[in-house]
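Please think about what follows:
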Amino acid sequence: MATSVAMASLPLGRALTPWSADRRLRFRSSGIAFASLEQKTYAQGIKISEGNGGLPKVSLLSPHGSEAEIYLFGGCITSWKVSNGKDLLFVRPDAVFNGKKPISGGIPHCFPQFGPGPIQQHGFARNMSWSIADSDNVEGDPIITLELRDDPYSRSMWDFSFQTLYKVKLHSNSLSTVLTVTNTDKKPFSFTTALHTYFRASIAGVSVKGLKGCKTLNKDPDPSNPLEGKEGREVITFPGFVDCIYLDAPKEIFLDNGIGDVINIQNSNWSDAVLWNPYMQMESCFKDFVCVENAKIGQVHLEPAQSWTAEQKIAIS
């Protein structure tokens, strides 16, 4: 049986060949047969359909009127609507749904690497097709569990056997996720990870509370040489470019999205947070979103058969 483990500061698992060396190994979601997906029976409140670009999409429908959409490509949640029909997530206008590039927006996965490093930016999990492992419905709340395993594409960058399970639960006013990574290899590995959540917003009115006192790694002005510091503000605003990591973040922070919503962002075992807005680097859309991310910046080290789990809950206050 897999055992749980906490964070350990050990080097990232070795990368074999550069991610761009053999693009022929890249797995594409177009290989998923809709017929096989549609023939299966899923729990109440879960529907499989063809989404943008012909990619398979999972819809979660709550009897309370809330909805969520998840693309199997990248295991990416692209929409979370509360009962009034308002979508609280944001997908960038330049997002491509072609099964070749990661979906830009929603809640993309960063795994097994957050940011730049030996393999492709933010790792490969957002650029692979996930499968449906299970579905359930608890007191009207639909729950879907997605699974990602190693294949030749992932092993061309990161030569380890693994299983990643991603459970998504929709409630009337919240969206919860549980991410579990298990080492199914015969050798240990290490990784970093994050949920790169894009929230719909009006950036001029955005504020984040709850991070005062955290140690910071500020990537402005030099992303390759972050400045260490300590957050002294009770209320963080976004008057310009922001790209900052908050280490040992609290288990709960609050986002005012500037368009009438206060979103409570809770976590268990993510440990760190990231705030990002590209400002004029994305002139066409920077005013319309903010990224508030739960992350694990320090290395997680797993011995064979060990697992690591982290939970996130985003809710309307």
User: Anything to note?
Assistant: The chain has two helices and 22 strands. The mean pLDDT is 90.
